[in-house]
Each structure stands twice: as C-alpha cells, then as structure tokens.
Protein 1
Amino acid sequence: MTAQKGSAFLLKIGDGAQPPAYATVAGLRTTQMSINGDTVVVTHKESGGWRELLSGAGTRSVSVSAGGIFLASEAEAAVRAHALAGTIDDYELSFEDGERLRGRFLVQRLDYAGDFNGERTYTLQLESSGAVVPA
C-alpha cells in the first residue's frame, strides 16, 4: 500500500446530461469526505449488557467539504448556480488510485472570502441525496 497525494483527490460536477460527463471543480486546495451512518440499536435482555446493532439498517450519508482559490471556471459557476437554486446535481469524487465515487448532492453551504491584497477563496459543503456508489 502506498501513500496517495491529496492533490489527486478531486471533486467533479456533472453536466446535467444523462449519463453525465464530469468536470473538475477547479482551484480546490483541500477536499474532505465523511461517510456517516445512523445506527439502529436492537439491544435486549439477553444481550449480556452489550449493545447490539442491526446491520444494514439506519440512514447513511456522505458529506464533502472543499475549499480553494476562485478561478471563475464553468464548474465553479455550476456549483454556485445549484447553491442559489437549492437544486441537487451529480458529483464525482476521484482518487489517485483510480477509485471514483458518484452520487447526487445538495450544496449545503457555499462561502466566499477575500483579502484586500490576496486571492478570492471559497469553501463549500455538499450533502448526499440518495446512494453514493463506486463508479
């Protein structure tokens, strides 16, 4: 097993077609993914004092956080349009080893910032809607 470069962890947005073609959201410096799962507890008197969980039950979700330099790319404009409209679109996460995850996400948050003498930056938060699956 070898270490993977963070620069190869890319966030891509679909073009709205079916099947979608994906474009990299340019200018990202950081990308983070979290897989979340709610549990269903099925502990009973015969559990011997240990908690038992129901496998495959509960709600699973994927959250994606990213931040970077604003470059005014078409992909960034599409993310902004979805944030303003509150619409869900297709996204892809790709990794250096070739693994890809695809799913539909809502832009939960989009923030812009800029210093007087520096670059314009942005951060975004995506929340999954439906299954996120290997591509």
Protein 2
Amino acid sequence: MKKTFTTTLLIALCFITIGCTKTDVKNNTEQEETDTIEIIDEVEDMDVKETEINIEKVVYDWEGDLEDVTKGKTILGVNTEGTSSGFAQAVFNNTYTLQAVFEGLPDPEGTDFYEGWIVRREGSFNVISTGKASKIDGVYKNVYESEKDLSDHTFYVLTIEPDDGDPAPAEHILEGVLMRN
C-alpha cells in the first residue's frame, strides 16, 4: 500500500507539474506575443515620426533659373545643343546652403567634369567654387554648404572643367541670377 500511495503521489505530482509547466509555457507565449505586438507598434510609430522629420521642407531665400549659354557649340566634347537648363536656390540659416539641379546635360568626356560657382558681382568681385556636380539618379546636381553667409554671391555658373588641376573656372555651360524671394 505504501508503494501504491508513493506511486500515485508521484504520478499526481507529475500531472500537476506538467499542467503547471504547460500553463506557464502558454502564459509566457501569450506574454511574448503581446510584447512583440507592442514593440512592433512602437517601431511603426517611430517610423511615422522619422518620416515626418525627413519631409520637412527647406524654404530657400534666393532662387533662379539657369540658362544654357553655349549657343549650341561643342565645348570640351560636350554639346548641349543649347537646350540644357537648371534651377539654383540658396538660403542662409546659420549655414549657407546652395542646391542646383540641371536638365539636359550630356556626360562629360573622359575625366572632365561639371563644376558649380557662385559669384559676387557687386562690391568686391569674388568667385567661389561650389564643387563638382554629381550625377544622382541620372540627374546632375550641385550641393554646397558653408559656415559663411554667402548670400551676396547672387550669380551662379556651371562650367565644364578639364581634369588639368587648374582651379580657375573654365568654359561656361549654364548661368543665372539668384533673386531674393
């Protein structure tokens, strides 16, 4: 009888332990699913906030159309047929930021490149390179930033440059005046 009672007790303990384990596992699984749902909701909310921040529009104070000045001539192997164009805009808000976008520019030959320039024509004449234009998604763009307020440089020029180490502006392709909005 003692042996039967002990066996019965062990079997009962096993069932109780297995039942508790199954319940604990089930409760833990349900808790994990709930936590996962809350985490996903938090991530989705974060994505929305990030998107809202990323689409903040910059309001530019100066802007202007850029016109082709090549008159259809071939310059350093590039011929725009006189139909290229562009648009430049700038703002100073603790940092001077300039962005120019171009249409109808053929790729330069070899290692030649397009380079942007801003010019101060009033007062003391000054020319500053805004760097090489980059082709992004099939479109040439020129983006430039400076800690100096260069808003008095209201003339923009895009040149075609030979890769010869000469820092001076070469042949003009596009030009335009940036007007205050």
Protein 3
Amino acid sequence: MKSSYNLAGAEQKIMQALWENGGTLSTGDLLDLLNRQGKPWKRQTLNTLLSRLEAKGVISRPRAYVEALISQKDLLQLQTKEILDSFYGGKLKNFCAALIGDTRLDDSEVKSLNAMIEELQKEQEGKGDK
C-alpha cells in the first residue's frame, strides 16, 4: 500500500520525464533521457527508484516499459492534500491562516480570494447535481 505521494528529487525527475514524453517510455529510453539531462544514471539506481515509485502507486512497469499512472496535476493535488492533512488537520482555513500569517491582504487580494471561493462553490454545487 502507498505510504506517501511525497517524491524525492530523483523520483520527481523520472516522473517529469514520463509526463513530458507521453506517459510511457521503455526503461532504456528513460535511462538515456535521464543521462542526457546531466548527471549520469546507473541502471541499478534507476531500477531502485522505479521500485519506490511503483510502491507509491504512481507508475507501473509492464515488461520493459515504465508507465505513469497519474498525471502531474493529479499528483500535485494528492501531495497538497497530504500536506493539508498532515500539517493543518485537513482544514483549508488552518492552511490559509498559516500562509497569510501576519500579512495584511489588500482589497484586490480579498476580492480575488472571494471570487475564487464563489467559483469553487459553484463547481461544488454543479457536482452535487450530477
């Protein structure tokens, strides 16, 4: 079972390479691509990282291929949810209070936030109708 969607830097590079190349690459092509980006990668290092990503449920490895099972947007949303749950009791208001801290919002920021909240409420109401 997945323990966390938190990705180490090298794991993030692998996912980025997959997303930028259609979501699926052969392990050989992935290794070549990562090697062309700078620091040389060893096959064993790649296999170790792929095992970790597979355990996290973000990739699968059918035969000699690596396939992203989650989009970049969806992964970011899951990571954000983990942070919200872990550090802010799952409460968006706690996160916002920590983010803003002692900062004073100007009128345009307040209007922008209110507009975003209204838009989110409309989206939620629309989902409830289905």
